[in-house]
Every structure is written in structure tokens, then in C-alpha cells.
Request: fold
Amino acid sequence: MYGYNGRVIRINLTDKSIKKEELDLEVAKKYIGARGLGVKTFMDEVDPKIDALSPENKLIIAGGPLTGAPVPTSGRFMVVTKSPLTGTIAISNSGGKWGAELKFAGYDMIILEGKAKDPVYINIVDDVITILEADEVWGKVASETTDILQDIHGDKAKVLCIGPAGEKLSLMAAIMNDVDRAAGRGGVGAVLGSKNVKAIVVRGTGKVALVDDEKAKKVGMDKIGILRKDPVAGQGLPTYGTAILVNIINENGIHPVKNFQESYTDQADKISGEALTEKYLVRKNPCYRCPIACGRWIKLEDGTECGGPEYETLWSFGSDCGIYDLNAVDVANMLCNEYGIDTISVGATIAAAMELYQRGYIKDEELAADGYSLNWGDAEAMIAWTKKICLREGFGDKMADGSYRLCESYGAPQYAMTVKKQEIPAYDPRGAQGHGITYAVNNRGGCHIKGYMISPEILGYPEKLDRFSLEGKAGYAKVFHDLTAVIDSLGLCIFTTFGLGLPDFVDMYNAVVGEEHDNESLLRAGDRIWTLEKLFNLKAGLTKADDTLPKRLLEDQIAEGPSKGNVHHLDVLLPEYYSVRGWDSEGVPTDDTLKALGLEEYIGYIS
Amino acid sequence: MRCLKIEVRLFATFRIGRDKIQMLDMPEGSKIIDVLDRLNIKSEEVSILLLNGRDGDAQRILKDSDVLALFPPVGGG
Reply:
């Protein structure tokens, strides 16, 4: 067995039983690994209708066949569970080093079920797995938790944990690993918190078995070489990180400002990648075996060193809140990493609260006890609210479950810039029509990364598309969605696609696992995985009505800037997308489609 | 000959050794490529070229008050 370890850890937290099970290799290969394997396993075991924060929910952490292998960006793993934020499948991906360490310990996947009576953490050292009391680390932030657990288990142990936000069940809570990497979206940290699991510590001394050591290493080095020579993966991202997007997206007039009320700002340069690099960058902060190294390590103005913000974070705490104080945004980012919460959703929720305040829904008297405003541009208040959200303090408690629930509680859900109750990120789809379809149909709710149409529509990779055109966009988006499902399932990073294409991923899979795939079969596996996730959502009760965008983006034209005058044309793109997927007009995969994808066993699943 | 006032915004590595915003006087009839020449930027170095926020190309003839934004190959997500 190559690439895969063939072993799964199953822990029942209710009765504290620990089992090691054999991986069903045929199933693993059919669904590749990580995201695909996790979703398939989850759906076999969990009724989509359960309450996401109940003991009936399970949480799966899975590496892919390439996680830990000698190929570029092989540090990634996937968290799969039912999202308490969206009610959909949660597929939340992270990098760092923890995922590779799980593979080195000899496992492909961990399945957590039930609920511990008291806070615990799990310690894995190769074959030895123990459940331990977490009293010493419960309530602690991510860096402190990591320090304490590494003091106990050694510096080589890798730590995945939740912060106080996960303990307090914020629906935006993340799972952190290696201090500042996050499975950020969908509230997966709240699921771990609901199970009373603070952390999973892992130390592995093995390695991933390769079908042909020499060939796999050569293929891996070749792909690293391609990425190093690529101008984006080898120069742009290493130099500036994803923060470089602030100016690009803004100059195109699709950088949302003040909760998407505007789409351009003349102050973007103050919070740009150029400014971050010049003023705050200490060094690059790469994940396992990554030549791209987009991660940032920065120094705040008070001297604290910490992980630096991504583009989406610079936007959410910056322009979306009308704030152009880069140090303040850096501080908010640091707080989110420490308290374990999603930077996109938190910033966007504060922005939604600011709009509710602007429009008179939130009154001054509701904020008086906290002593902070919800005025656009108030950086000090933004930092204070971030912390209060994480700790569910005062008005922060009302914001801790995200912008949709906040806006709905004031009878104004139209001001929640969400899809399926999850905050959409930092690109106004009225000026990037293909990106809008990704937002609307994404199986995990509002999200940019599971089919990044900004790449062809703005950045010109792999080719430049007219960002306002609708022609062919639904089909293009589908290919991006399927390819992303493949990369997520292999255990690699989506940023490899700036230099690598489908044949490169086939090369790497075959060099590590054995000659199993060609371009067509690997991409079809991506289609299978995406469709399977859709089936979960349909059975959970979601419908076509959930595959939509906030009303503002469909009805109000962009008022100013380079994308002025545009709305999003989802009415055209959505039926086309359903059609290219082989789904009916309600977005339900047809029996023929299920058969063609090898999903016959799911015929009748949703009825 | 009339002069065109052109604003050029430079980003990322194009800022090395150059002011990030340049106000140029260009002769009437100038093309975008002439601006690149003036700034000593080769057109193949430019990955994203925006003319007034929309995709531009190097052969396009400029108008007074046009705004150019130039980016080398960069990406993210």
C-alpha cells in the first residue's frame, strides 16, 4: 500500500474507546483521500439532519495520499463535519505541518464521535494513542496551548487545537494547528468544542510509503522546480503573500467596502501587501514542503511577533469595516489566530453590525455597557469587538454566531453578505461573474477557495477571461470546482495551480500511489466528490433557494469605481451550472448523473 | 502638439526604484506601450494591465486623464 497508510483512528469520546481500523482502500482510491474520503466516510455514518453541535455529529480529520509525501505543498489535511454555521457539509482545509505528522504516525484519518464528559485532549505517538485531561489548557489561547502541550510531549510534537472561541461554541470558531494555521471556515472549531476536545497532539516517526522511491522523489522535485520558476508561485506569492491582492482587486473595482455598499477605495494602499511587506514583514512562514511560502511572519507595532494576515483578512477587518490602519488589522488577525476563529466571518460580521448601526437597527443603548462604537473606521472598537466575539462578552455574544443570525435578529437579513449563512469573502461578484457562481453554489456556503474564478477573471491564470462576460462561465467554474476537489483530496495546496495543471497532479498521484489515474479519471473523481457533497446538503434540507447571492449583489448596481453599473447575473448562470453538472432544474443530480459518476448507491438517497 | 495627462499606478516590484504614482505628460497619439517604454518596463513583464480599471492592451491609444495600473505576475486567494 503506497501513499495511503491503511489505518484509521476511531475515538468515541463518550465511552473513551479508541479503535484502530483498517482503511477501505478501494473506497479511499475512489474518493482519493482527505476531502473526498472524509465526506464519503462522514455520509456513511451520519444523518445529514442531525444537530451539528450534538454528540450525534462526528468530526473527521483526514490527510490525502500525497499528504506527507515528497511532493510540493504536501502538508495539507481536511476537517469534515456538519457545519453549525451553515447546516451544510463542512470541508475545512489547513496547512502547516500537523497533517504530514499524522501521516508519519501511520494514519490516514481520525474519526471523532460522541462527546467527552469533561475537557480532554488526544495524544498520538505513532502506535500509542491516549485521551488525557485538558484542565491545564482549557481556556488557553492557541500559542499558550501549543507551548504547554509541547512542554509535556516534546518540541517535535505537532499541536492542533481550538481556542476560547471554539470552547464557547462561536459558530465562526476555527480549528488551529501549528499556532497560526487554521481550518477556518464553517465553525468546525465549535464542533470540536461541543465534544469537549481541546487539542490533538501528534508525533510520528514513520514516513509515507512510495510505490517507487526514486521516481516519486524525482517527480516531486520536478514539480517543485516548475513552481519555483513560475512568476506567481515562485516570485509574487513568496515576496508579498496573498496580501498583494488588495491593490489588484481594488483597482478592478471589486474590493468590497463597508459591507459591500461600495466596491473601490482610494485608501487601499495603506493596508496592501506592499505596505505589509515594507513595514511589518519579518520573514516568510511556509507550510510543510512548500516552495511557495505565502505565509507571513510579522512584527506588530508593540513588538509582538505573530502570523500575518491574508488578503481576505486585510479586507474583512480593513476595507469592509472602513478601516485603513494596518497595525490594527494585524492585531485583529493575531487575536483570531490566538482565540481560534475565522478571520473572514468575524470581520464581515463586524462590518454587518456597522451597517445595522448606520441604518439605525442597532441603538447606542445596546452598546453602552461595552463602551465601544460600531462606527465605520473605528479601529480600536473593531479590535475590542473581535475579542468580545471570541469570548461571547456583552454585545459580542450577539455577533458570535455570524452576520446572518445577527441581521436576522433585527429583522434585516438582507444586510448579511452571506451565502448559506456563511460570509462571502473579499471579491464583489458583480464585477467577476464567474466568481459569483462559485459563491452561490459552493457546497460549504459563501467561500472563494473551492473554485477560485478570480484566477482567470482577474489574474489571468491559466488564461484571461472577460470578467463581465457570462459566456461559458458556468462550465469553466465547474472544472475549477472539480479540480479543487481533486487537489483538496490529494492533500495538496490550491496555490499549486498557479504553476501546475491536472496532468501534474496525475503524475504525482501515480508516482506515489501507483499507476491508477489519467486526467479524465482524476477529474471525474473531483466531480464525484462535489456531487456527493451536494447530496449531503440536499438531504440536510437545503434547496435551490439556498444557491443564491445576497439581494444587494443581484439587484443593486455597483455605484462607483471601475465596475460601476454592474449586478450579478445569477439568473443566467445558475441554470447553466446545474445543466453542465447533469443536475435537474432544481439542482438535484439526476439518476443518470449519479450512475455516470459511480454514485449508484446514492440513487434515492435524498428522498 | 497637445499633451495628455496620464496617471500611472505601479504595484509590487514595479515600485522598486520608481515612484508608485506617476503623473506623465505624453504626446497626443501615444499608446500604452509608449508609457511602458518611458518607465523602462518591458510589456512582457506586465501581467495585469488595467486602463481605467478595465483590461487594457499595450497597443491601445491613450486619451487625456487616462489611468493605468500595472502589475507584475502576482496572485493569491
Residues 519-540 of chain A form the longest helix (22 residues).
